[in-house]
Amino acid sequence: MSDSLLVLIPARLLAGLYGSLRHVLQDVLVILWDNGLALYNLLTWDLPANAVVPKGCLGAGGVWPPYAPSTEGDSRCSCPALNAMANHGILPRSGRGITFRELNAKIRETYNFAPSFCFFVPNYAANMLCRDYWNDTFDLSDLDAHNCIEHDASLTREDCVDAKDQAKPSERLIEELLASGTGPHGDLTHADLSRMSGKRRTESKLKNGQFSLTTFHKIFGSSNSSTMLTVFGGKIKDLRPILLEERIPDGWQSRVRHRMGLTMAEFNKSALRVELGIREEVWGYPSSAQQKKKM
């Protein structure tokens, strides 16, 4: 074995170990930070419903910048909430050259997620894209690397095997979702999202020969779904423009009124309630053979 290999191998092992330990320590610190913010929210009063967006920020008082849908050459992704921010100029309208730190700040201001949450998610995206959270930039479409934030069995997008452009909402799926509400005034509930998620996973598994959905992405999908309840209150009148037009309604402000925003601790409770309510995860999904027998 050459001298260079004797140096290279230990160096690579140490670098890998350091990277792993750094990520673990970072996650532990973020969780501790998040729990502290959750406690602060419990001990303080909520913000007024008409003053959730901070003064001086875009959207303060429910007055949002002009809406303009994306045009050819703009970058968009499979997340309606991020696309809406670009369509209103909260993020660059082109959807390009966004810093992860900018994304952190703008999500906090627009949707009132907790600072811990706003760091964790962009940092996760940076790691998935093999980029540096502190210095690098991304385009919104970069997030649609399969099984990054984009995943099969979405409630608002067809699977990527059928729709290569994941920035385009599926009107079929969205209208079906909006029509499924059983809450007051037809608004969505946790049970509705569980039922529709189970239906969508079954449909996708039977139709998509390349279907993949890890446990992580099942939870991630339920997390995405639960924002319809936590941030938008399940209100169909607000969800329709967000999901179909990717437009923030006039006068709208986040339903999250905690002073430190929506923490991961609180968010995870809602996401788990959706995920654990999916019957198909208990009773199993029908196979293609079973489906053919019914036909």
TrEMBL record:
The UniProt record lists the keyword Ligase: no
Highest taxon of source: Eukaryota
A molecular function GO annotation: metal ion binding
Keywords per UniProt: Heme, Iron, Metal-binding, Oxidoreductase, Peroxidase
Transmembrane feature ranges: none
Region (Disordered): 182-204
Entry similarity comment: Belongs to the chloroperoxidase family.
Name of the protein described by the UniProt record: Chloroperoxidase-like protein
Record organism: Phanerochaete sordida
